[in-house]
Write a structure and sequence with these properties.
By secondary structure, the protein is an alpha+beta fold. It has 2 domains: 114 residues, Rieske [2Fe-2S] iron-sulphur domain (Rieske Iron-sulfur Protein), CATH 2.102.10.10; 205 residues, Naphthalene 1,2-dioxygenase Alpha Subunit, Chain A, domain 1. The strands form 4 sheets. A 7-stranded antiparallel β-sheet has the order 2-10-9-5-4-3-6. A 7-stranded antiparallel β-sheet has the order 11-17-16-15-14-13-12, with helices on both faces. β16 and β17 form a beta hairpin. The longest helix has 30 residues. Bound molecules: FE2/S2 (inorganic) cluster and fe (ii) ion (FE2). This is Rieske domain-containing protein. One of its GO terms (molecular function) is iron ion binding. It comes from Asticcacaulis benevestitus DSM 16100 = ATCC BAA-896. Its cofactor is Fe cation.
């Protein structure tokens, strides 16, 4: 074990065992102890503007649906009360909350109010319909972002997010246009994805020709509850690029943050806010113990300059390159961590300070150190 054999004044063992990055039993515990009790970002308010607009979100085996019922947003388990079919099958769309199997239709309280052949086959009265209502979840929004908490009771979204609530409200006011939305699977445990997203130590090797040109290496961490931020300065080259772009595209920039700040919203949201103009928002959600889904969106400040389409194309091409580099290294890291017989946590240095914070928050919620 590193802590008994090494005398480093700065490095120490982390809190998550290597074997936890590929174990189905650990994932079941994570769903119960971390995901169900946290507010999870499941999508965007922009996609839920009209009656019957819906979004779905999958976490492990669980599917949630958030749907607009005449202007009121409600969140339910995405499983029919009849014989348990999936209700909404697309990531988003506009469709009544009706089961595709036998046609039970649900209202905003989750009650089955339209049941084919009810009189002759089921005979359900109002009290039966209430008893057969869908399992509902708490939901709330801040700015562009829709959050759901599966377990009740618990803290409000605002209390859970702490400083991140105001930050999300602010960037939603500034970064009004969604310029990219993409979703794909990565062959790695979700924790590897989060940990990769919150440290900059890998930038010189993994992003030698991309992100390394953007961000200086000195990065400052701030902690609030299980969440944390990294703040850093843009390189001179990036600063010049953004100054030119802000001018040409007439971007309406934030007056608060003109360099770079990255938020980790525990457990699985990683965001960056760059040059007071560009916000990226990523959720990393387990599919199974060795696979996660990355949902990534980018939002740009308003602006009326003719150069805007070119700027958007350039930003999206850059993001795609960085994501691809991260995806590849996560899958390489997973192939190492998936080896059997490694019975210790990682050895973390000062450069891993946000990884350490994430692992400590994780271990605390799993109710055991060195899970
Ligand atoms: S399973 Fe949904 S209506 Fe039958
Ligand atoms: Fe990266």
């Amino acid at each position: 074990m590193p802590d008994s054999t090494m005398k480093s004044p700065l490095g120490r063992p982390g809190y998550i065992q290597a074997a936890s990055y590929g174990d189905a039993d650990v994932l079941r515990l994570e769903l119960d102890h971390i995901f169900k009790s946290s507010w999870l970002c499941v999508g965007f308010a922009n996609d839920l503007q009209n009656h019957n607009d819906f979004i779905t979100f999958q976490v492990g085996p669980h599917s949630l649906v958030v749907q607009n019922f005449k202007g009121v947003l409600k969140a339910f388990r995405n499983v029919c009360s009849h014989r348990f079919s999936r209700l909404q099958t697309e990531p988003c769309g506009n469709r009544a909350l009706t089961c595709p199997y036998h046609g039970w239709r649900y209202d905003g309280e989750g009650r089955p109010v339209g049941i084919p052949q009810n009189e002759t086959a089921f005979g359900l009265v109002d009290s039966d319909r209430a008893a057969l209502a869908l399992e509902s979840y708490e939901m709330d929004t801040v700015g562009h972002f829709v959050f759901v908490r599966m377990n009740s009771p618990g803290p409000s979204l605002k209390a859970f997010l702490g400083e991140a609530w105001e930050a999300l409200a602010h960037v939603s006011d500034i970064c009004v246009e969604r310029i990219e939305q993409i979703s794909y699977e990565v062959g790695a445990n979700w924790k590897l994805g989060v940990e990769n997203g919150i440290e900059a130590y890998h930038h010189p090797l993994v992003h030698s020709d991309t992100f390394s040109n953007v961000l200086q290496q000195d990065i400052l961490m701030n902690v609030y509850g299980p969440h944390c931020t990294h703040e850093g300065a843009l390189t001179a080259r990036s600063r010049r690029w953004w100054d030119t772009i802000a001018d040409k595209a007439r971007l309406e920039l934030s007056d608060r943050q003109r360099d770079y700040v990255s938020f980790l919203i525990f457990p699985n949201v990683v965001t960056t806010f760059t040059a007071g103009a560009l916000f990226t928002f990523q959720t990393l959600t387990p599919i199974n113990a060795s696979r996660f889904r990355l949902n990534s969106s980018s939002w740009l400040a308003a602006g009326s300059g003719a150069a805007r389409p070119l700027v958007i194309g350039s930003l999206n091409a850059f993001s795609a390159r960085v994501r691809d580099e991260d995806l590849k290294i996560c899958e390489i890291a997973q192939s190492g961590v998936a080896e059997r017989g490694i019975d210790r946590p990682p050895f973390l240095g000062e450069v891993d300070n946000r990884v350490r914070h994430f692992q400590a928050a994780y271990a605390e919620r799993m109710e055991a150190q060195h899970v």
